[in-house]
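Researcher: Here's the sequence for the chain we discussed earlier.
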Amino acid sequence: MINFYNFGIIFYMTVEVKRKQRESSEALIRRFTKRVLESGVISQVKKTRFKTKRQSERARKMSALHRKKMAERRDYLIKIGALKSKE
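Model: Thanks. This is the structure I predict for it:
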């Protein structure tokens, strides 16, 4: 059973592979990997891995103001020679 936690929701997906008679461990692992890929567990995790909550309008404005303030500060420091310009 494979379980993973994703944004407050726990997903359980059962992937079961039993070893066949006279089957090597490499073949067993290969079959297990194939079953996991077919079940869609990996794709589901990759889809939602970097998903973030949408910011509120106030938070977006504050973030924009902060970026603007930092850009002005950087420009000032470049102007007085405290920082080297990117060029």
